[in-house]
Amino acid sequence: MSSLQLLRIKMYRTVARQLHGTVPCWVCGQHVTFEAATLEHIQARSEGGNSHADNLAISHEVCNGQRHASGVVPASPTLPGQVQRWQAPAPHGKPG
């Protein structure tokens, strides 16, 4: 097991303990299950970021991939210093 995998487990368990079982995704803000959790580089390594714990956050694998596909993480317009949270599209209504 790699050191990043061990760090992911440790970070997930620490956040879960601190937040009474809820682990929010750094990108979308929704709860991340242990199985879906990945480590997100807050400042991308390609932009000079590192893999130290202070530059890592828990995110969904899908959110992590979407963020890197777009290459952009917009700042929150209402919460300085935080990212704008991605909102999943509302489920479609019943066909009618």
Describe this structure as you would to a colleague.
The chain has 96 residues and is of the alpha+beta class. The protein has one domain (3-70): Orthogonal Bundle (DNA Binding (I), subunit A), CATH 1.10.30. 27% of the residues lie in helices and 10% in strands. The chain contains two helices and two strands, in the order αββα. It has helices at residues 3-18, 61-70, and strands at residues 37-41, 56-60.
Compact summary:
With 96 residues, the chain is α+β, with helices and mostly antiparallel strands.
Number of H/I helices: 2
Order of helices and strands: HEEH
Q: Mean of residue pLDDT?
A: 78
- CATH T-level topology: DNA Binding (I), subunit A
Which band does the percent of strand residues land in?
5-15%
Layout of strands and helices, then pairs:
Elements: H1 3-18, E1 37-41, E2 56-60, H2 61-70
Antiparallel strand pairs: 1-2
Please tag this protein with its features.
alpha+beta, 2 helices, two-stranded antiparallel sheet, disordered C terminus, 96 residues
